[in-house]
Design goal:
heterotrimer, A alpha/beta (323), B mainly alpha (145), C mainly alpha (427), A: 323 residues, alpha/beta, six-stranded mixed beta sheet, five-stranded mixed beta sheet, globular, B: 145 residues, mainly alpha, two-stranded antiparallel ribbon, 5 helices, 2 strands, binds sodium ion, cell membrane (chain B), plasmid (chain B), transmembrane (chain B)
Chain lengths: 323, 145, 427
């Protein structure tokens, strides 16, 4: 049987975490089911946008996709709780949180709310968000003042930028490069690999490793299709999903460390890391604003998730590897 | 159209003058445009403005041409009837999807598809009854390129 | 195969292109089996239209209509006349030059052909030019309109393929000017043979100055549009909305020739023209999705690459396909249908996205003047009453010259990307 798997990244497993994840997943499924299931991948938005992919999985037109938080938000507004800014201490903390009780609770809540989907995991999209701009080095909270930053059309992302003192304008992805190039906007925020692949260093001078957001994919499969599989095949699916998540994390870290990531960006841009005090000032400025916004716009279920998220993140931040 | 122009102006003025950072002008413009475009499609049907190739059909004898043009109209009607039928499901499905920026469901925006398909069906039935395949050279509009 | 066959059959029996695309797409969905695939269509129609940059198209059309209505076109023609009217074939040269001025106002070749067919062709006839020659010159110049920005075709290409529209605009300027120069050369070289008339007297400096001043309002428009986009103040869509505002302002307060009734009519006609284009875009969403699912673009790409993997051969095949299909089909429709199939090929052979875009746009523009389906020929023929066949004969040298421009820009990347690189849109 064929599993149609659509996503919105290029079909090169060394190019982006999405396809690394997909390729590993397809390989494990084909090998471990001895060819009973075959994954047919539709990369590069061939079938539509990320949001359309989710709808297609729900309708059973294709069976699987990797949905960004932006794409999920339309169907599952509670995912906004992941946008709590400056939450994580490091990448390892994100692994613990999404592999632990919070990841499980989030997956269960999504499945209950949506009904027609099964959540298989939360692969890495390329790590933490960084902010680039063309105006000045951003090292302190005050440096954000008046910088016009492009954000996705997510209200919470806008709120965070505004809480930092920047101006937030939504702009379609296709217009971001030329918008930055011509100066319609001054800056943008994205994970380091995205900044590198989108060639933003050509049009942006300053990069600040704010690490203010972590926005994973949600690996989704159609529920009817999933329930039609044998228990053995389902078990294989979960194994494959775990390996896919691991691969996405590995490739993200490798890209960050290679000349296609931070090392490469350092040659082309002025890179700034935040001091502990400056980061604390930004936490101070953004977290209460985000929580006020969340209390105002999100429902009871979301706030319960947000509480669990904060507890789990804190535990992960305080724990050490193999400790 | 006027609303569209005003909406886009607002986006620009906001960025340079007011700094309200309104999140919605761009999204609103897209959804307004889809409504306007889909309704414009139906008005094009009434005036038979949709461009087609007429080189072959113009050289056919009258009777054959009339039959083919009728078939063509009926097929178009079938297309829009189909779009109306599945469009209703699409728009009601949109009730469960949020337009993040407005905090409302996508249903009123998605409704552009079934509503305009319904209008197109009505227009097509009217032009079929009006012309009965006797439309002369299907009009060539001045098409900007 | 069935889908392609049905599509061609529908086109032959005269079904509008947009509907043919839609029906073919739905037949494709049916062939996949299962109601869930049929339910995909409305979403694809919606998503097909859901792109902010598309808005630039109706805005540029509206701005052009207003400028045309309030008599700006006539001023531009007059300016071109006083500048180059004194030479042999002066009015023919003026026609070309006016096309360049006009190009800065509109993105449309047919608007150029219609406007000049009504004004310049009769004027050239009165001055002793043959009507077929006057029409040929107008047709040759009309494609400068969508080559020099703004250009509706570039908006569609950029939105569909995710290429910077501003970058495409920058890349269009030089080829547009090159077409003007080379066509003027054709006029000059053929001047004696065609026995083109010579004006009795040239314009005085005073006349030139007065005409220039009176056209300033019109010449400011391209400056506003291009300056706004390339200078980083607005996106192309926003520039288009501002162009509308500017045209309205000039019409209402400077020339005072714009009435509410006329404006309403222009709004309606803009909506109609937009509807005709957008129906194709909308239904192409269905057909395109079916093609992606069945992996047809990959199959076509493999077939082409099986012929040859030489970049220059692949480029040549793409140009040939566009020119040949452009002979029988509307070019916006071709762009919408074929760009998703052919552009991946240009990626395979390592063509810069903006360079590939310019090749597409030049090829399709040139096909606007080739029979049997050359929109500019249609318009000119219907406006002037001249036979398409007669215009075509006189058009041949211009066509060859423009093909030359196309070849140069297709194979000389440094020339094609000179401005986009200079302005930083590509590297
Ligand atoms: Na133009
Ligand atoms: Na043509």
């Amino acid at each position: 049987e064929t599993i149609g798997f659509g996503h919105d990244n290029k079909a090169d497993p060394f190019e982006n975490p999405a396809h690394a994840c997909t390729a590993v997943f397809a390989n494990v499924v084909a090998a471990d089911t001895n060819g009973e299931y075959e994954v047919e991948v539709f990369p590069s938005n061939q079938l539509g946008s990320a949001s359309e992919h989710v709808q297609m999985v729900r309708d059973g037109v294709i069976q699987m996709t990797l949905a960004s938080t932006g794409a999920m938000a339309g169907y599952y507004p509670r995912i906004d709780v992941l946008n709590l800014p400056f939450a994580f201490r490091n990448n390892a903390s994100t692994y613990k949180v999404f592999d632990g009780p919070f990841g499980k609770a989030l997956a269960e809540d999504m499945e209950a709310e949506l009904g027609d989907l099964v959540v298989l995991g939360f692969p890495d999209t390329g790590g933490f968000f960084a902010v680039t701009n063309s105006q000045r080095e951003i090292a302190k909270l005050a440096d954000f003042e008046g910088i016009r930053v492009r954000t996705m059309t997510l209200p919470s992302h806008q709120k965070i930028m505004q809480a930092l003192g920047a101006e937030a304008y939504p702009l379609a992805w296709g217009q971001v490069y030329s918008g930055l190039q011509t100066g319609v906007i001054d800056g943008q925020m994205n994970p380091v690999p995205t900044i590198s692949f989108a060639k933003f260093p050509e049009v942006q001078k300053y990069l600040t490793l704010t690490n203010h957001l972590f926005s994973p994919y949600t690996l989704l499969i159609n529920r009817d299709f999933y329930e039609g599989m044998s228990p053995e095949a389902q078990a294989t699916l979960h194994d494959a999903a775990e390996e896919c998540v691991t691969a996405s994390r590995g490739l993200s870290r490798i890209i960050e460390a290679s000349d296609r990531g931070l090392a490469g960006l350092m040659d082309q841009m002025e890179v700034t890391a935040l001091s502990a005090e400056d980061r604390a000032a930004m936490v101070e400025a953004t977290q209460p604003a985000f929580e006020a916004y969340a209390a105002e716009t999100l429902d009871e279920g979301a706030l319960t998730l947000l509480d669990l998220f904060k507890t789990e993140v804190q535990a992960a931040n305080e724990s050490a590897y193999l400790d | 159209m006027v609303a569209l122009v005003l909406d886009v102006w607002l986006g620009v003025i906001d960025r340079y003058h007011f700094h309200w950072q309104l999140p919605w002008p761009e999204t609103l413009a897209r959804y307004l445009m889809i409504w306007a475009a889909m309704l414009a499609v139906s008005s094009g049907i009434a005036r038979r403005e949709h461009i087609g190739l007429t080189t072959v059909i113009d050289r056919l004898p009258f009777g054959l041409r009339r039959t083919l043009l009728m078939i063509s109209d009926v097929l178009a009607l079938a297309l829009f009837a189909y779009l109306l039928w599945f469009g209703i499901g699409f728009a009601t499905g949109g009730a469960n999807k949020q337009a993040m920026i407005f905090g409302v469901s996508m249903a009123p925006f998605y409704a552009a598809i079934p509503v305009s398909a319904a209008v197109c069906c009505v227009q097509l039935i009217l032009v079929i009854l009006r012309d009965k395949g006797r439309q002369g050279e299907p009009a060539t509009v001045e098409m900007p390129k | 195969m069935t889908v392609a066959l049905i599509f061609v059959l529908l086109l032959i029996i005269g079904t509008p292109i947009g509907f043919s695309v839609g029906i073919a797409g739905v037949v494709g969905l049916i062939s996949m089996g299962g109601e869930r695939f049929l339910a995909v269509a409305p979403g694809k129609v919606f998503a097909g239209l859901d792109a902010f940059p598309f808005l630039a198209m109706p805005f540029f059309i509206l701005a052009g209509e207003i400028m045309n209505h309030i008599g700006i076109t006539d001023r531009l023609i007059k300016l071109a006349e006083v500048l180059v009217g004194r030479f042999r074939g002066g009015l023919a040269h003026a026609n070309m030059l006016a096309s360049v001025f006009f190009a800065g106002l509109t993105g449309s070749a047919t608007a150029d052909a219609a406007a000049f067919g009504r004004t310049l062709v009769p004027a050239m006839e009165r001055a002793g030019y043959k009507r077929d020659y006057a029409c040929a010159v107008t047709a040759a110049g009309s494609i400068i309109g969508p080559t020099i920005p703004p250009s509706g075709l570039m908006v569609v290409y950029g939105s569909l393929m995710g290429v910077s529209i501003s970058g495409l605009f920058a890349a269009g300027i030089l080829p547009g000017l090159a077409i003007c120069v080379i066509c003027m050369a054709v006029i000059a070289l053929g001047g004696k043979r065609e026995n083109l008339p010579v004006a009795e007297r040239g314009a005085t400096l005073g006349e030139i100055w007065r005409t220039f001043v009176s056209s300033l309002t019109a010449l400011a428009m391209p400056a506003i549009i291009l300056g706004g986009i390339l200078g980083g103040i607005v996106t192309p869509t926003e520039a288009a909305a501002i162009a509308v505002a500017y045209a309205l302002f000039i019409g209402a307060f400077v020339y005072r020739s714009l009435t509410f009734g006329a404006l309403l009519e222009m709004l309606i006609s803009t909506a109609r023209i937009t509807g005709v284009i957008f129906v194709i875009i909308a239904f192409a969403g269905i057909l395109g999705w079916w093609m992606s699912f069945e992996r047809i673009p990959q199959a076509i790409a493999e077939a082409v690459l099986a012929t040859s993997e030489e970049p220059w051969v692949v480029t040549l095949i793409i140009i040939a396909v566009l020119l040949v299909i452009g002979m029988v089909m509307d070019i916006t429709a071709i762009l919408i249908l074929l760009a998703p199939v052919l552009v991946p090929l240009t990626e395979t052979i390592g063509l810069d996205p903006i360079h590939a875009g310019i090749i597409f746009i030049l090829s399709l523009n040139i096909s606007l003047m080739t029979p049997p389906v050359g929109a500019c020929l249609f318009v000119l023929s219907s406006v002037t009453g001249e036979k398409i066949e007669r215009i075509t004969v006189k058009l041949v040298p211009f066509l060859l010259a423009e093909l030359g421009v196309l070849i140069v820009y297709a194979y000389w990347e440094d020339a094609a990307l000179l401005l986009p690189r200079l302005l930083g849109f590509t590297n």
